[in-house]
Amino acid sequence: MNPYTGDVKNPWDKTRITAGSSSGSAAAVACGMIPGSLGSDTGGSIRMPASVCGIAGLKPTYGRIPRTGVLDLSWSMDHVGPMARTTEDCALLLNALAGSDNADLTSYAGLTEDFTSQFKKGLGLIRIGVPTNYFFEDPVDPEISEAVLSSINTMVLNGAEVVEVSMPWVDKDERLI
To answer: Considering 14, 28, 116, 176, which has the largest number of Cβ atoms within 10 A of its Cβ?
Structure first.
């Protein structure tokens, strides 16, 4: 909650949340105010706002984008990442942002790749683990299950391999949160 300006409204349904500290960026991208933006992610603050606003958000590998100028919440967990309307636009932003910065000793000093090149290859080299014991149990809304299954089918049609995985520790982890 922002006591000065009020909460950021979800551009698709103003009664719903925008879910995180980067929610303003996600909402601005989702409603077309800007083509892309940055967020910072320690515990989901790029991924959650992006998902509830219907855009792409990426928490890159630690150090891929320098954190220079970012106010740390947890220096060992903070990530800077792009948000955009499409995953390809996120890759374009990642191309521009990735690299090293002498002012951030945790930034990646190696060569960076062209992250957009993956879009030409399709999903043929991607293996996706789908939890069998977490997403499809009650009380999951049927619309959510259908959307997840539809997404999985789309990935398979684009060449991805889907593998069922078990996540027995999830129940224990949820109790810690």
So the answer is: 28
**Which residue would you say has higher pLDDT here, 8 or 168?**
8
List the Cα angle 31/50/9 in 5-degree steps: 50
Domain ranges of the chain: 1-110, 122-177
The string of pLDDT tens digits covering residues 64-83 is 999 998 888 887 888 999 99
- Report d(CA 41, CA 131) in Å as an integer: 24
Residues 6+ apart with CB under 8 A from 68: 101, 103, 104, 107
Q: What is the pLDDT of residue 11?
A: 94
